[in-house]
Design goal:
Layout (H helix, E strand, L loop, with lengths): L2 H10 L4 H52 L6 E2 L16 E2 L11 H8 L2 E2 L20 H5 L11 E2 L5 E3 L13 H5 L23 E4 L39 E5 L62 H4 E2 L10 E2 L12 E2 L9 E6 L4 E5 L27 H6 L12
Parallel strand pairs: 6-8
Antiparallel strand pairs: 1-2, 3-5, 4-5, 6-7, 7-11, 9-10, 11-12
């Protein structure tokens, strides 16, 4: 056999290194082309799931309104009990808490609305049934850092220590595991932030407090509270003069991941926001992170910020106002870290979805608002007591501001 024939025979028995490299390169190119499509498909599925969560929440609010002829308060509940956060929830419960029975989560509601016994060996609840929400059930046991054995502030008629119905203050989640448990319906699957240890569950959906800055989240009657929700005030659908189809009820918020990301953290002690909300833009750099000299405001335990407590209705954690467009920074007027600090400032909607965020309209429809939505003149003074801007004026913050108020503006969002 000639040398040429031998070479041809050996060649048929395998591939050269060069040929293998070509094959590997082709496979790599195909994978590179396929991966973005797979990622896009997954994000589309997550986005659809997020939209479905909002639809369930919207239906729950409508069923609540049908039952009580009003919507729940933005901040409400039992108390106050000054000096003892375990005796009541200090009137800080979010509107997401009272709609739980209308989300087909009756066992969870039974735990909240009844006494919660604490003991070294927690006993399963009998109301509602189902392993998911039972104190001794596998989900409750496996998904919490620990079952509370802290002595409750009360002693019930069985002689056992307990927390009162409707629980302690939302920031007492370390001793009240129900606040740690939360609701899966309140999380966007595209938001990967995990609940900090012994901290309340997070929420990806926030209540609309209108287009005000000063006193917008405080338990006072104020002309600046022009949204569907307010602290200590319950509105009904008849109060929404713009019509349910033209008014925002909720929007997404991106939960804090412990960084200086402006879309999920809060800049503290930013003065002058009520007269010039555009000052909030000056707190961030070109990458969308807060400048090094900006102090950040976090929850009382220092472990979370935006979306940081599903049960706490404070606008800082569970609310937003329609001033800066979606995926903008958040700025608080105070540097006080106390739980009862002034609840005012500019708090923006945000999400992990490309280009904007989902919103829930008052009629129950779910829409997607882009970051390019018209937001008017951010250097215009907001509405507040004594403001040069009339309280009867249409929102100065464009389409976005008008959608957040319950006044008489007539604006629509495209499908």
């Amino acid at each position: 056999m000639s040398n040429r024939a031998k070479a041809m025979k050996n060649r048929k028995q395998g591939y050269t290194i060069f040929e293998l490299l070509i094959v590997v390169g082709i496979i790599a190119v195909l994978l590179a082309m396929l991966l973005p499509a797979v990622q896009a498909a997954r994000e589309a599925a997550r986005r659809m799931s997020c939209s479905n969560n909002f639809k369930q929440i919207g239906l729950a609010f409508h069923n609540y309104h049908s039952a009580y002829n009003q919507l729940p308060q933005g901040c409400g509940g039992t108390g106050p009990t000054p000096g003892n956060d375990d005796l009541s929830n200090q009137r800080r419960l979010s509107a997401l808490v009272p709609i739980i029975p209308f989300l087909e989560a009756s066992p969870m509601w039974e735990m909240i609305s009844n006494e919660y016994e604490t003991a070294d060996t927690p006993r399963p609840v009998t109301a509602g049934g189902g392993d998911f929400y039972e104190k001794g059930g596998s989900y409750f046991r496996d998904h919490l850092d620990e079952l509370s054995n802290a002595p409750g502030p009360l002693i019930n008629d069985k002689g056992r220590r307990c927390f009162p119905p409707m629980g302690p203050a939302p920031w007492r989640a370390s001793v009240y595991p129900v606040w740690q448990l939360g609701m899966m319906t309140y999380r966007c699957p595209s938001d990967y932030t995990e609940r900090p240890p012994k901290h309340a569950a997070l929420s990806s959906y926030a209540l609309c407090y209108g287009d005000g800055v000063q006193e917008v989240g405080e338990d006072v009657e104020s002309i600046s509270q022009r949204g569907v929700f307010a602290n200590g005030r319950a509105r009904a659908f008849r109060d929404i003069h713009d019509g349910l189809v033209n008014t925002l009820m909720m929007a997404e918020v991106l939960t804090d991941n412990g960084t200086r990301r402006a879309t999920s953290a809060i800049a503290a002690n930013i003065a002058g926001l009520r007269d010039d909300p555009s000052q909030c833009w000056a707190t961030i750099d070109s990458r969308g992170a807060y400048l090094p000299n900006i102090q950040l405001r976090r929850t009382p335990d220092g472990l979370a910020s935006r979306g940081g407590n599903w049960a706490d209705g404070a606008i800082l954690w569970s609310g937003f106002n329609t001033i800066l467009p979606p995926n903008s920074p958040n700025c608080e007027t105070s540097s006080n870290t106390a739980v009862n600090a002034r609840l005012e400032g500019v708090f923006s909607a945000s999400s992990s979805h490309q280009g904007g965020c989902h919103v829930l309209m008052a009629d129950g429809a779910v829409k997607f608002v882009t970051t390019s939505i018209d937001y008017g003149d951010l250097q215009t003074t907001s509405v507040y007591p004594g403001s040069p801007t009339s309280e009867t004026i249409d929102s100065p913050y464009g389409v976005w501001g008008a959608l957040g108020t319950i006044g008489r503006e007539s604006l629509e969002v495209e499908e």
